[in-house]
Amino acid sequence: MLIDHPLLGPRDAAEFVILGDASLIDRPDRQAEDAARQFHDYLHLRDNPAGEHRELWFHEQGDRSWLVVTRNTLTHEVLKVELARDVAIARGRDR
Amino acid sequence: MHYSALRILKEGLTGNRGWKPVWREPEPKRRYEIVVVGGGGHGLATAYYLATVHGLTDVAVLEKGWLGSGNVGRNTTIVRSNYLLPGNQPFYELSMKLWEGLEQDFNYNAMVSQRGIINLYHSDAQRDAAVRRGNAMILAGADAVLLDRAALREKCPFLDFDNERFPIQGGLWQPRGGTVRHDAVAWGYGRGADRRGVDLIQNCEVTGFDIRNGVCHGVETTRGAIAANRVAVCVAGSSGRVMGYAGLRLPIESHVLQAFVSEGLKPAVPGVLTFGAGHFYISQSDKGGLVFGGDIDGYNSYAQRGNLPALEHVCEGGMALMPMIGRARVLRIWGGLVDMSMDGSPFIDRTPVEGLFFNGGWNYGGFKATPASGYCYAHLVATGEPHPVAAEMRLDRFQRGAAIDEKGAGAQPNLH
What we know:
The complex is a heterodimer of chains A (95) and B (416). Chain A has 95 residues and is of the alpha+beta class. Chain A has 2 helices and 6 strands, in the order E-E-E-H-E-E-E-H.
């Protein structure tokens, strides 16, 4: 698989490590009433779709940036690559 | 038809005209007491034990493809019970005991071969961990032998004992481990269930559940709706997809695991060997092919095929362990769809939907578990209570802080 890094261009997927579903960006509020349940769901439950999947990749053997890669899990086709930072800010996080 | 040496003799003398198809191909009825979703090893074993142990034969097994077309047909055939934790080891030891009596039990040749499995260790710390694991195995009624360097060299002189980076110090040997002819396991269980009246329905994909007021009343399939009082799902890599029809999110991700077979060679590898310093394990099939594999690719996948970096990684591990295989050519490679759970351990449990049961999250180790998985799942579905050796394999264990994390690696599927 080739991952088209937004800053560096196409890179071999072997340079990256994958963390998993991009929903891990949306960390729950630790002070919420039901924080324990929210953190359980956040940490352990997955949508696990067959098809388009947004996931976090870390460019460990490169510029060490976190990316959000949209990939088809049925074909391994990489559809879209964004900097995780941009995605997190767009979702309302401060960084 | 009962298989025996006498039967072979009789058929041989009469032109082999008496052999019958191994199972019927029934049309699905509109209603069953129990529907098992998934006609792989675990589903067929579940149906078999429902019929034989619990006397329940108003059962259908629904399979979207042909029987045994999933992971039971695409694994590396290894059976073992060398686990550490109390939530796992008694279960796998039950599985091992069932393997030992399986062929007589279901009257089918599954080529169970207890040729032994050796997990190598390469450092003092790994030796201590091996001793601890071996003691845990013995406590659970299994067998374990610690091999030092000399004893291991006698068994496997071809290993690279003096590897610069990872010299081999010895191994933890489970003599009762070994290999089993994987397809024959599915066929034997399927035949055994069919003979007792279970309907095995192929080319019948489940497309939804009939859930009203939190109670499951049956399934919708590509061959029409089928009502059932109890629905037992065991669909391995498709767990997330199928349980999604019931509105459930699972602590599971689907990944791809690759395996490899070389050309046929003369007997060289005495049993199953696992590299303690990298991702590599190997055995040799009865046809002579070296059957080997390593770790999962690491990313979510439903493609049933992997990528070349994993192949390179596995072959590097093989060369570090036993350089003699460098001249063997890889004949076939394939990828299986594995349901990786968050702690590397499986689930056999009820769900929040009444009458709907779930069995899955077998990671890359579902094959060895086939008999005990079927046995314990049948027990749960028939009696409503978990079998004692599977009592910790619950869906809510992360909520309770009771993960069964065999490696102590943390709650992330691609670490297991």
